[in-house]
Amino acid sequence: MMNSWKGASARQWALWFVLLAVATTGLFLLRGRLDKAHFALVFLLVVLGGSAAGGRLLGITLAGVAFLVFDIGFVPPYYTMQVTDPFDWIILFVFLATGVIAAELMERQRREAEVARERTSEIDRIATLGAETLNAPRPEDALKAIADVIRQSMHTDECDISLTDSRVTNVLSPDDSRDVPLLPTRFMRIPLRIRDATVGTLTLRSKRPFLLSRDQERVLSALSYYAALGVERVRLASAESEAESLRRADRLKDALLASVSHDLRTPLTTIKGIANEIARGGDSERAYVIEEEADRLTALVDDLLDLSQLAAGEMDVNSEVNTADDVIGAALQRVESSYPHRSIETELKGPWTELVGRFDFVHTMRILTNLLDNASKYAPHGTPVRMTVWRANNELNFSVDNGGNPVPEDERERIFEPFFRGSLRRGEARGTGLGLSIARRLAQLQGGRLIYAPNSESASRFVLTLPAADVPAMEIVARSL
Question: Helix H segments across 280-360?
Answer without folding.
Answer: 287-312, 324-336
